[in-house]
Amino acid sequence: MLDIKYYILIDAIARHGSLHAASAAIGLTQPAATHRIKEMERRLAVTLFEKRGRRLVLTPAGKRLLDTAREVIPLLIAAEKEAALLARDEMPALRWGVDAHDIVGAILHEAYSRGIHGIDIYRFSTQAKISALLDKQIDLALVNSPMVPKGIKSLLIHEDELKAVVPITHPLASRDSVCAEDIAQEPYLTFSAAREPGFEFDRFFNPQQHSPETIRIIESVHTLLGVIAAGQQGVSILSTWVVKASGLEDKITLVPLDGVRIPIDWHLAYLDNDIVNEHLPQLEKIFIKTLKNN
After folding, report:
1. Domain topology for 4-87
2. Would you list the domain boundaries of the chain?
3. Domain 94-157+265-293 is in which class?
4. Tens digit of pLDDT for each residue in 83-134?
5. Contact of 236 with 116, CB cutoff 8 Å
6. What angle do CA 276, 280, 281 make, to 5 degrees?
7. Residue pLDDT, tens place only, 132-161
């Protein structure tokens, strides 16, 4: 029977496509990875990989082992973490998955004040959060879509809207509203280059036929707001709650978008498990207070 280290290598090669990248990703030298492949194939008496150009491609036998690896490795990682907790005689922590909307301080403060101290925070892309829930890597996440797969529950937390975020000293800060042309002339800071339906490019910039001339990607709303606040330059369009919860309202301000209101609803997506169910009434109050009352 192969040790888990062999399955980890199979998974890494499948993800990265080359032995060089895979070995670097899991902290092996390339000669050591090569030796490990030969050892696997010798012990199993099968060919696991075929070379196509510079890529290593799994054979059917290799794919079978990969399927097993991707089932077993997360279970082993979870079991190791739970064993470590049991050894320390601790209750498991709530695992909260966050994406670019990483304004977590106010939520954690409210949670601590209500006696919920064990919260671990894991970072994912927006698209990966639901997958992380399905894979039971996390227990809960804030999402702005009510469409969640079977096996995940959700609660509507806050009905919000998108507004322009500008430095408090900027001339736009005194406006009743801003149009797309106003923002297009400023450096536009955003956490994602994706132009998704229903958001600012689709509902605001495109209809007014003006898009930002300069776009800067900062994959952290916390950092993005800090840049605008510190430099007193650059603008963005964000959900209002993140600005109000950021603690930066003395340096940045919100201005409505001219001619359009873009709603954005926030839902708490969560697993139906013991640790979430134990804290769910409090969690609902914590997120509602932070998102709605700030």
Report:
1. Arc Repressor Mutant, subunit A (1.10.10)
2. 4-87, 94-157+265-293, 160-263
3. alpha beta
4. 766 665 556 789 999 999 999 998 999 998 888 888 999 998 887 888 888 8
5. no
6. 165
7. 888 889 999 999 876 667 778 999 999 999
Do the domains spanning 94-157+265-293 and 160-263 agree at the CATH topology level?
A: yes
- What's the predicted TM-score (pTM) here? 0.68
Distance CA 28, CA 100 (A): 31
Kindly tell me the burial class for residue 193, based on how many C-beta atoms sit within 10 Å of its own C-beta (0-12, 13-18, 19 or more). exposed
User: Residue 26 — very low, low, confident or very high, per pLDDT cuts 50/70/90?
Assistant: confident
CATH no., domain 160-263: 3.40.190.10
Q: Between 293 and 47, whose confidence is greater?
A: 47
CA distance 95 to 138: 5
Q: Are 248 and 226 in contact (CB under 8 A)?
A: yes
Q: In a 3-state reduction of DSSP, which class is residue 70? A: helix
User: The tokens 């280290």 sit on which residue?
Assistant: 5
DSSP 251-278: TEEEEPBTT--EEEEEEEEEE-SHHHHH
Percentage of residues in the chain having pLDDT higher than 70: 96
